[in-house]
Every structure is written in C-alpha cells, then in structure tokens.
Specification:
single chain, alpha+beta, four-stranded mixed β-sheet, four-stranded antiparallel β-sheet, 1 helix, 13% helix, globular
Length: 143
C-alpha cells in the first residue's frame, strides 16, 4: 500500500515539475476576455479537469463511498465507489461523503498547487471537497 502511495506521489512530482516548465500569461494579459461565457461548450462555470488531471479517489476500504461529481450541486450527481475501486475515467470528482456517525482516514496527494498539503487526514461525517489536483486514498480501517 505504501509503495503504491509513493509511486503515485512520484508521478505527481513529475507532473508538477513538467507543468512548472511552462509560463502562461493570465487571460487578460493575453488579450482574452475574462467576462462572459466561453464559446467552447466543453468549458463549464463549475470547473472540471485541467487537461487530463482530475480530482481522483481510490477506495482501499471495504465500504461503499458516495462521491459527487458537482460541488455546486452536491446531490445532483452522486456516484457510488465500492471497496477496491477508483474513479479513474469518471471525470473530475469534487467531493467525498462520510456517513453519519462515521469517520474516514484518508491520504491526500496534492499533485500541483498543494493547497491542503500532502498527508494523512481523518474526516468526520459530512461532505469533503476534493480539488482538481488532488488524489484521495481512502484507507482500509482494518489495516
């Protein structure tokens, strides 16, 4: 398990180094309007993946976990992630739900901007936001 986490962390560091090599001008500096809807139908105001990088969840627990694909309407697009599954290929996962009276031990790998910081967290009941650059590993409570 730890070997898998280290392998994913190494990939994240490689992606961060690769992306850091490119300087991108802010939209206004590049002469692009920052107001109004995008003409590209694939661009939505709720965000989503950045290229091929999406919020991702690996469920190493035996429990079924609810995830939302839309933080702006949490209950509008819930999917179920069974023990041993991951959300790779689902698109950008925006949140994970911890059931009433439960806790969840997770490891978070922030691949680019590291807002929350890599490490282990204990989540209490309720919804927990996942950023686009984060991989969340739900740990097996049985070891």
């Amino acid at each position: 398990m730890l070997r898998q986490l280290k392998a994913h962390a190494a990939v994240g560091a490689t992606v961060a180094a690769f992306v850091g090599m490119f300087a991108v001008a802010p939209p206004a500096a590049a002469g692009v309007s920052t107001t109004g809807p995008s003409p590209d139908p694939a661009v939505t105001p709720l965000g989503g993946c950045i290229g091929t990088m999406c919020g991702l969840v690996y469920n190493y627990s035996p429990d079924t976990v609810s995830v939302t694909m839309d933080w702006g309407n949490i209950n509008g697009n819930i999917r179920y992630l069974y023990g041993g599954q991951n959300t790779n290929g689902w698109g950008d996962v925006d949140g994970v739900h911890v059931g009433p009276g439960r806790t969840m031990r997770v490891y978070i790998d922030s691949r680019l901007w590291g807002g929350r910081g890599d490490g282990y967290y204990t989540w209490l009941e309720g919804w927990h936001k996942i950023e686009t650059d984060e991989i969340v590993y739900i740990m097996n409570p049985n070891g």
